[in-house]
Amino acid sequence: MAAHPTTSVPWAAARQAVHAAGAAAIRPPVTVPLVEAEGRTLSGPLTARAPMPAFPTSSVDGWAVRGSGPWRITGRVLAGSPAPALSVDGTCVEIATGAMVPDGTTTIVRVEDSTVTGDEVSGEARAPHEWRDIGEEAAGDEELMPAGTRINPAVLGLAASAGHDTLSVHAAPRVATLVFGDELLTEGLAGDGRVRDALGPQVPAWLRRLGADALPPVVPVPDSLDAHVDALRKAIADGADLICTTGGTMNGPVDHLHPALKELGAEYVVNTVEVRPGFPMLVAALPGGRFVCGLPGNPQSAVVAIVTLVMPLIAGLAGQPVPPLGTVTLGAEVAGRGGHTHLALVRRDAADGRAYPLPHANSAMLRGLAQAIGFAVIAPGTTGTSGASVPLVALP
């Protein structure tokens, strides 16, 4: 690996390249109970183990009747109980919502549409039948969700309804955060040339929102080559699939990340991206299928690198597709950045629903980021004009 290769990659191509690298290094799937599967990714399709529903179930409270009325009451069927067949015309059973519909049922009369006189019921049905048929939602073995689906609470409920006790999932990538810089304070006020660390608290939080298993940050890592190498090796020993570093991505007097990567035998997947802000970002592959993502040291630039490189890399490692972009309509002009993609912080206006650029959006600032819905994507060689529809990278 060359010490400091400088070939930059277009923004869209960088997203695709790191996703492909992550997908090629995906770990074998694991089987977990449903209660542990939220936030992970299906390693295979979710299918129905039996028809859904498995038996006809009443949609209303009322009377399951056979033949013409009035009907003689012969019993009651509640949810969770078997339903004896209705074998004689002119008979009925009281039925609860969700209960099994007896064989022989002609229709169901809602309780509010019925009159009970002694042991007889009279009334009119609103529809031919008010129950869910066998397999109405899904046939047995039907695919319900494709492989690569991120598991949310609704998917968990669907899996349980489909008869699953466990799910085969891709393990959440384990990610370490190393914050480089002798100038960083972890508490108190900035002063005497030292500044507060703004990345140690936020990078792991972004990683968790991306579905990663984020390790506690290491802050600060001293500005020396030996300290960088030692910290990287410690993260590898701790089982990190991905190591996010902050700062040191250029070639200044205290930028030791490139030499450290060379010492560890890394190969670049992407080194610098044609995007502003945050272009000196990188992803390098370590021996053994692990990765280092070098984020710039400026806080907003680091978040640009997260949505540009870390987001698709984690998606690849987790068995998910490249994260899709949204769309916004601009409410004001957004400047371009020449031949580079411009990721411009925007807020959404509650009155007109349009996206507007934010102040305090310098790469070293966080005030604009804290108010943003994400980054409007202004393509190279263009300007975002008011009223234009442009892609949006939503914040996780």
Automatic annotation (TrEMBL):
It catalyses: adenylyl-molybdopterin + molybdate = Mo-molybdopterin + AMP + H(+). Its cofactor is Mg(2+). It holds the Pfam family MoCF_biosynth. This is Molybdopterin molybdenumtransferase. Pathway: Cofactor biosynthesis; molybdopterin biosynthesis. The keyword Membrane does not apply. InterPro entries: MoaB/Mog-like_dom_sf, MoaB/Mog_dom, MoeA-like, MoeA_C_domain_IV, MoeA_C_domain_IV_sf, MoeA_linker/N, MoeA_linker/N_sf. PANTHER family: GEPHYRIN, MOLYBDOPTERIN BIOSYNTHESIS PROTEIN. GO terms for cellular component: cytosol. It comes from Virgisporangium ochraceum. CDD domains: MoeA. Keywords: Magnesium, Metal-binding, Molybdenum, Molybdenum cofactor biosynthesis, Transferase. GO terms for molecular function: metal ion binding; molybdopterin molybdotransferase activity. Belongs to the MoeA family.
